């Protein structure tokens, strides 16, 4: 700002300086996030360092008389010590000689590790470095990002590498920054894990856990005839992940089968948080250009930009139906076509079931016929009465009347899963329970399939190979 005042006639210099400041700020943002990906709870001081890490030097202890005494007793550092200190994965491979080097240079393990030292330690191990990951296959490409299947040299596990191109003038896409800032704080068994971030001058690479396929590919593989038990297990996991997000005021805003990843165990995880948004108050105004058309609620289709967690719940209902019926519920080609499909099934809305609908200009301009609601059981005959009841509770016209993810998990439809699924820690999979197992899908084709492309890892709406 001061530079702009002093150089009134040098607008270009001012602009360049602003871009430079933004670039530096973005670099700092990425560095701070990288250090938080592998999380450690420390009591931090006002300077951003550990409270306990300041004061005396790392190899000194303060005596009761105020004299600094040299602490010469350093016990041998083990891999268990290191994993615990840095919250590392149990299967990580530490570079040769690293423990010996750490033994000589690190403060005693009974002292806290400063944030700066922690970042340096993670970097030395290999986090935040492109050479740590081996690219194997290109899985897909979008407007802003390319996704590769890769392997981590640290764990030898497969990973998904989402490589986002950084334009010199524009920097990182806002969707990438939003996805990183949200995912680093979302730790749940039903949310895809962000392992690492690699930032270079030309790209920002997000390193995710690798999962075998998405829900759309799963349904294709079983000929769109899923076991109704598996429908229930998958739906519960969707709700479990969403409930966790909504409790933290995070809206996903782009729920669809392609954005739900599934591994070989049947664990389902929410992914692609490029359109997700942290909300502060329920009435905050957001963009109405969110959620893929088929899974977009009617209030958003009609231009509403004031919404809360209920925007996700309509999409859950559409996905629930698609799993049970084997076909999309409202596969419209345009906004008007989408609304026609919704109204033909659920009936044209009235002031009784959607107060205020008659005053919405968009609704009046379409001049929809007066459709009567159809029995949903005729379209999803494999759903029992409890399933139909739950489905309709997702598909309410008035958004505030849609059932929440937390309430839906307690619905009697899930009684078969038992009570223990409700008391599991957030990071524990429901498949740790003996009573929760997948069944063979009746339409499953026993043959080899081409490797799935995790399109959900690409920025929403950017995938070109669908």
UniProtKB/TrEMBL annotation:
MF annotations from Gene Ontology: ATP binding; cyclin-dependent protein serine/threonine kinase activity
Enzyme class: transferase
Binding site for ATP: 162
Comp. bias intervals (Polar residues): 51-64
Transmembrane segments: 12-34
Any GO CC annotation of this UniProt entry: nucleus
Domain of life, source organism: Eukaryota
Name recorded for this polypeptide: cyclin-dependent kinase
Organism field: Sparus aurata (Gilthead sea bream)
């Amino acid at each position: 700002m001061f530079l702009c005042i002093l150089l009134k006639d040098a607008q270009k210099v001012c602009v360049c300086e602003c871009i430079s400041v933004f670039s530096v700020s973005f670099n700092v943002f990425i560095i701070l996030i990288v250090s938080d990906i592998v999380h450690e709870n420390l009591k931090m001081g006002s300077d951003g360092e550990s409270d306990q890490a300041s004061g005396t030097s790392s190899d000194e202890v303060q005596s009761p008389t105020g004299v600094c005494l040299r602490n010469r007793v350093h016990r041998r550092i083990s891999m268990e010590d290191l994993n615990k200190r840095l919250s590392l994965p149990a299967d990580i491979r530490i570079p040769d000689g690293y423990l010996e080097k750490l033994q000589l240079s690190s403060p005693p393990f009974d002292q806290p590790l400063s944030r700066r030292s922690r970042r340096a330690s993670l970097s030395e191990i290999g986090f935040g470095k492109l050479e740590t990951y081996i690219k194997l296959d290109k899985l897909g490409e979008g407007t802003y990002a390319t996704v590769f299947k890769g392997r981590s040299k640290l764990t030898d596990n497969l990973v998904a590498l989402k490589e986002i191109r950084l334009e010199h003038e524009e920097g990182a896409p806002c969707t990438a920054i939003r996805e990183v800032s949200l995912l680093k704080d979302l730790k749940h068994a039903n949310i895809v894990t962000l392992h690492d971030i690699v930032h270079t001058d030309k790209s920002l690479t997000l390193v995710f856990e690798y999962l075998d396929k998405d829900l759309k590919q799963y349904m294709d593989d079983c000929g769109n005839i899923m076991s109704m038990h598996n429908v229930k297990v998958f739906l519960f996991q969707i709700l479990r992940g969403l409930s966790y997000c909504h409790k933290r005021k995070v809206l996903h805003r782009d729920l669809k089968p392609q954005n739900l990843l599934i591994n070989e165990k049947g664990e389902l995880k929410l992914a692609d948080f490029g359109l997700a948004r942290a909300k502060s108050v329920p009435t905050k105004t957001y963009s109405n250009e969110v959620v893929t058309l088929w899974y977009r609620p009617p209030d958003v289709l009609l231009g509403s930009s004031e919404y809360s967690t209920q925007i996700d719940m309509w999409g859950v209902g559409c996905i629930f139906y698609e799993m049970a019926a084997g076909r999309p519920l409202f596969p419209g080609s345009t906004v008007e076509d989408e609304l026609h499909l919704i109204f033909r099934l659920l009936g044209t809305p009235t002031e009784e079931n959607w107060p205020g609908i008659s005053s919405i200009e968009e609704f009046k301009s379409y001049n929809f016929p007066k459709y009567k609601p159809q029995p949903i059981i005729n379209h999803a005959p494999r759903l029992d009465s409890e399933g139909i009841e739950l489905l309709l509770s997702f598909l309410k016209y008035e958004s505030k009347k849609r059932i929440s993810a937390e309430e839906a998990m307690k619905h009697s439809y899930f009684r078969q899963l038992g009570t223990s699924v409700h008391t599991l820690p957030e990071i524990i999979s429901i498949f740790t329970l003996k009573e929760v197992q997948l069944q063979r899908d009746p339409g499953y084709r026993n043959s080899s399939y081409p490797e799935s492309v995790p399109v959900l890892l690409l920025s929403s709406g950017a995938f070109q190979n669908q």
